[in-house]
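User: Predict ATP synthase f chain, mitochondrial's structure from this.
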Amino acid sequence: MNAILGRSALKRATAMRNYSSLREIIPPNIGFAARAGETAEPTAAAAAATLSAQDVSKVVSLYRNLPKGNVEAKVVRGGPLARYYNRYFTGDTMSAAPILHVIVAMLVGGYSIHYLKHLKYHKHAENH
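Assistant:
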């Protein structure tokens, strides 16, 4: 029981840590609106609403590094094999996943063939 409670507490702590790290990159006008709805003493609310130079520089650097302009959607023409090829074999998306796909396909196919040719006749060991 303690292990279960410990896991849930760990999940809550991780979620809160992620939440606090996400608050650092919220734009100032949204951050001020969110902070205004919080219940706190007036002096604490005023202190929370002021941003330091480091906070502002984080927001500015975030928005400066975002891509600008319209991005054209990459259209892949062709059937399933063309889409598979473009997904796993071209550009920045190259990976070793097709090797794993071949291994899984051979295992599933091999077991299926073995079952159809041999195992389905020996389900209950009547033919032995």
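The chain has two domains: 2-65, 96-128.
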